[in-house]
Structure formats: C-alpha cells, structure tokens
Amino acid sequence: MNYQWDFQTVWENFDVLWIGLIGTLKIFSVTVVLGLFGGLIVGMGRYARPIWIRGPASIFVEFFRNTPVLVQIIWFYFALPILVPINVSPFLAAVLGISLNTAAFSAEIYRGGIQSIEPGQWEAAKAIGMNYAQTMRRIILPQAIKRMLPPLTNRGIEAFKMSTLASVVAYVETLNQAKLIASLNFNPIETYSVVAFAFFVILYPLVQATYVLERMFGKSD
Amino acid sequence: MHQWDFSPVFSNLDFLLLGLYHTFLVTALALSFGIPIGLALALCRLSRFRLVSGVATFIIEFFRTTPPLVQLFWFFFALPILIDVRMTPFVASVATFSIQSSAFFAEIFRGGINSIERGQWEAAKAIGMSYRQSLRRIILPQAVKRMIPAFLERSIELLKTTTLISTVSYADLMFQANELAQKTFRPLEVYTVVALMYFFLIFGFSYASIHVERFLAKSGESTMR
User: Fold this and answer.
1) How far is the C-alpha of A8 from the C-alpha of B84, rounded, in Å?
2) Which of A25, A52, A94, B27 is disulfide-compatible with A166, CB 3.0–4.6 A?
3) Largest separation between any pair of C-alpha atoms in chain A
4) Do A192 and B77 touch (CB under 8 A)?
5) Each residue of A184-220: pLDDT tens digit?
C-alpha cells in the first residue's frame, strides 16, 4: 500500500485527454439526437395499426434491446463492410451501434408514455372533432412527454456511458486516449482514476436532474 | 455479392460454446457476490449514521454513474499496482461486475425496503423484535418479493454488460468470436451467429421475466412501473 501517487504525468498530457473528451461529446451528441429521434419514429411504428409497420418495428426493438451493444458495434465494424460496399469508420460503427440501441430503448419509453394516457382523452378529442394527428399533437403528447422525460434523460446518461465502447474499435474518445497515456507514461492508476472521476463529475449532476424531474412531474400528475 | 458460408462457424461451435460457458460463469459469480454486497450497501445507505450512509451513497452513485468499461480497466490495470496482487482477466472481471452490479442491486433493495409500510416496522417493534429480527423476519421477505422483476431486469443487463470482459482478453463468448473471426476470415458469419446467440439467449430470459412480472403483478406485488 506504499504506492506513490503522481498525477503530474496526467496533467502534462491533459491536452490528449481533452481531445478524447471532445470525441466523447461528439459521439454522444450524435447518438443522442439520432437515438431519441429514431426512437420516436419506431415508437410510433410500434403503435401503428397495420401489421407491416408494427411487425418490423417490434422486431427492431426486440433485437436491439436484447443484444449487447458491444456485439452490435463489432458487427457493424467488421461484418457490415463485407455485406455492403461502404467504408465503415470506427465513428460510424459506434454511432450505428449506440444510436440504434438508444432508439430501441427510447421507442419503448415513447410507446409506454403514450399508452399510459387514459383512453378517455382520445375519445374526448375525437368527440370534439379532432383527427389522429391533431389529437396526438394537442392532447396526448403534451401530457405524455411529462411522464417520458425522466426515463428519456436516463437513456441519455446511458448513451454517454456507452460512448466508452467506441474505444474498442479505436475511435478517439476519452477512454481510448487514457489507454494511450497510461501505456506511454506507465501511470494507469492515475490516468484511469482521473477518467473515472471525470465521468462521475459530468454525469452525476445529470443523474440528480432526473431525480428532480421525477419529483417535479410526480407532484403535478 | 458475398458468398455466405457458415460451415467454419458450425465446425467450431464448441469453441464458441466454451466462451458462452465463461460468460455464464462470470455472470453467475458476479450475481452471487453482487447481491449480498448490494444488500449490505443498501442497509448502510439506510443507516441512521450520517457517515455510514454517506459513504455507501457515494459508492453506489459512483459505480452507477461511471461507465463499466472504465471501471473494468481500473480494476485490471490500476488495482494490481495499488495492492500488489497479480490480477488475472478473470478476477478483474468478476470483481468489477460484482461491485458494479451491487451498486444497482443496492438501489433495488433500498426501493424494496422503503416500499414496505412503516406500520410493519412498528408492529414488529411492538411485539419486541430487534432491528435485525424485524428486517430478517418481517421486512425482507415482503420486500424481496416486490423486487424480483427489477432484479431480473438487472441480471439480464449484467449478462449483456459482461461482453466488455473480452476487452481485457478474458475468453467469453465475444472474445471467442473475435478469435474465430480472425482465424477463419469469416467475420460476417461469425459475428452474425454470435449476435443471434446473444439475442436468443437474452430474449429468452426477458420473455421469462415478463411472465414472472405478470404473475407477480396479479398478486399485487411489484415495484416495477
């Protein structure tokens, strides 16, 4: 237990970590936007009546919810380029894996949120002459979004944590840069400790925010 | 167009099944350590002593909010230097996922215990039970039943997360798939088969857990929303 901690070498390489952090934020913002938006479309698809929309949407959701993200990323990186003649970069593979996974999980949140609204609301809207799109936009979504916001924020946090998996296909993000620093300076303890704390410091306020959201909307419901 | 050929995958199926066995082994060990540690953390967090509950809260929040891959790297590369032990990929994987899942289990335990009405504690006290007795005889038996759905969900999540151990070269299903893909030059077939293996496995578990959930919901005991 007489290890001499020395954070000097980590601070000296802070710019390397900084590049990684920007990579993490880049992949996070792309996957969150694609994932939450894609999830809305798939969620609506799962709610649709025609089986040729509902069926594929359900298969998509079940498949991506029930396979590990790492398997998806590796599949997109190594297997997809054989199937279609495109060059899959580490960034593209990670974005595909994480955003499709986020889409599948958030689709269920949207569906659950919409289904949790009482049927009476639909009937009342229909009674005063609104069509499906109007009812959805004016009556159902404004109420459902309140219930969906806390779990969706949670999904965002999950997506942020998942972004570290991009390091497996050598995308330049925080963990990948940490690996580089640790192997060049022989300081894995300090580097990985700093990275772990960095993630904690970034995500903890977000986690607290979901608690606040839950309490706020829990009261008003 | 690519010529599909699954024969290299199926002739090496035992190689993949060995990986699957290792995946289950780590999951099972992480569960059997994670659940008791989770209970201990939950009880500490509910403790009246500020220091105990503070430390437990910090541990729980820390392991819930940092990426599991970072934790795994820390346990594998950093811990051995700190405490001077030889860390094998296996030990690092089990240690990481025991502690990581215990943080999530702690929150499930806490939710379950908190969901039991105060009257139950008071009634137990009134007939002369100590804190430990009422916890063991009255509170936990009721709480555990409510926790089962959340608990199953977490275990499935754990099974999915164990794919990360392939990055520290532990021979789980994912790692074996990487090896096989390199050896046979058939990444498309290998990864597709492995993805489907994971899918049917996890889908089977999820499907079973939905039935358990419905069954428990009927008897009115569930903390799942």
Assistant:
1) 22
2) A94
3) 76
4) yes
5) 888 888 999 999 999 999 999 988 988 888 888 776 6
Of the ranges A12-16, B15-19, B28-32, B93-97, which one carries the lowest mean pLDDT score? A12-16
**CB distance A10 to A187 below 8 Å:** yes
Residue A72: its chain B contacts at CB < 8 A? 195
How far is the C-alpha of B30 from the C-alpha of B32, rounded, in Å? 6
C-beta atoms of A82 and B188 within 8 A: yes
Residue type, A65: R
Count CB-CB contacts under 10 A for residue B85. 10
Report helix, strand or coil for B185: coil
CB B156 within 8 A of CB B138: no
Question: How close, in Å, is residue B68 to chain A by CA atoms?
Answer: 8
- Minimum Cα–Cα distance from A3: chain B residue: B82
Q: What is the dihedral of CA A14, A19, A22, A23, to 10 degrees?
A: -130
**Each residue's pLDDT tens digit, A130-143:** 998 899 889 998 88
Q: Which residues of B touch A183 (CB under 8 A)?
A: none
Task: Return the residue of A nearest to B173 by Cα.
Answer: A71
Of B67, B82, B174, the CB nearest to A71: B174
Please name the residue of chain A whose CA is at the shortest distance from the CA of residue B78: A189
CB pairs under 8 A between A and B: 114
Cβ within 8 Å, pair B67-A162: yes
Mean pLDDT across chain A, nearest whole number?
91
Residues found in chain B = 225
10 Å Cβ neighbour count for B193? 18
Average pLDDT over residues A117-134: 92
Determine whether A105 is exposed, middle or buried from the number of CB atoms within 10 Å of its CB (0-12, 13-18, 19+).
buried
- Assess A7–B contact: CB distance below 8 Å, yes or no: no
Q: Residues A57-73: pLDDT tens digits?
A: 999 999 999 999 999 99
Q: Average pLDDT of B90-113? A: 94
Section A50-54 average pLDDT: 91
